[in-house]
């Protein structure tokens, strides 16, 4: 898609999400992917995280992860959705419109996996909320980094926030949530998260290359 500006045109950027359970390597691989995109000479690339990447999002992130408060899955869902909508409006849409690529850690799949499948919220209602209030722009590709829960937890180390405190059984339900999300939504590709950083990055680049073609 190209946006016309007078006599010139700007190719719209691509929006790629990396998602998965805690410890699967999202942050590392998002950094690798953003670097790969930049090195291709395709222009500006934004590396964002969810929740966060805006003043509102970072404030909500601190609240959501704080051990000082108790937050129900229903309220978590609303706060995550608000942070996401702010990020989409403030950062993602303007970047894509000016031709920049966006790489984001976490998106709808995380909310579905953590708050619906693991947290017990109604799956259909939660998806309806997400796709009504935080639906645009839609990612061109969602990469689900799939990894055994025990391996991911070993990589992650000690719990560092309120959600990580919920333990291994909770993370196993989260992992099932990502499987269910991939089954019930389009645009999600499973990538094996096991192996060296370089090998996993190669798998991701192979998938991302298809949406850039």
Describe the structure in your own words:
A 5-stranded parallel beta sheet has the order 4-5-3-6-7, sandwiched between helices. The protein has helices at 26-39, 55-65, 73-97, 108-117, 123-133, 149-156, 167-184, 197-212, and strands spanning 2-5, 8-11, 15-19, 45-49, 101-105, 141-146, 188-192. It is 53% helix and 16% strand. It has one domain: Rossmann fold. The chain has 213 residues and is α/β, with parallel strands linked by helices.
What is the fold's blueprint, element by element?
Elements: E1 2-5, E2 8-11, E3 15-19, H1 26-39, E4 45-49, H2 55-65, H3 73-97, E5 101-105, H4 108-117, H5 123-133, E6 141-146, H6 149-156, H7 167-184, E7 188-192, H8 197-212
Parallel strand pairs: 3-5, 3-6, 4-5, 6-7
Antiparallel strand pairs: 1-2
Helix pairs in contact: 1-8, 2-3, 3-4, 3-5, 4-5, 4-7
Task: Jot down its keywords.
213 residues, alpha/beta, Rossmann fold, five-stranded parallel β-sheet, 8 helices, 7 strands, 53% helix
């Amino acid at each position: 898609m190209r946006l016309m500006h007078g006599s010139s045109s700007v190719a719209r950027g691509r929006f790629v999400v990396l998602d998965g359970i805690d410890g699967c390597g999202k942050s590392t691989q998002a950094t690798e992917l953003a670097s790969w995109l930049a090195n291709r000479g395709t222009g500006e690339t934004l590396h964002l995280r969810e929740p966060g990447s805006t003043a509102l999002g970072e404030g909500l992130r601190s609240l959501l992860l704080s051990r000082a408060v108790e937050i129900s899955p229903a309220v978590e869902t609303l706060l995550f959705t608000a942070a996401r909508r702010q990020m989409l409006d403030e950062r993602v849409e303007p970047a894509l419109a000016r031709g920049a690529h966006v790489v984001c850690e976490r998106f709808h799949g995380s909310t579905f996996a953590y708050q619906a499948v693991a947290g017990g919220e109604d799956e259909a209602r939660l998806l309806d909320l997400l796709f009504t209030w935080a639906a645009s722009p839609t990612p061109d590709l969602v990469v689900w980094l799939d990894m055994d829960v025990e391996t991911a937890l070993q990589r992650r180390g000690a719990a560092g926030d309120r959600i990580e405190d919920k333990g291994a059984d909770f993370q196993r339900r989260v992992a099932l949530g990502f499987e269910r999300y991939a089954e019930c939504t389009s645009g999600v590709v499973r990538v094996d998260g096991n192996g060296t950083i370089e090998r996993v990055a190669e798998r991701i680049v192979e998938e991302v290359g298809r949406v850039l073609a």
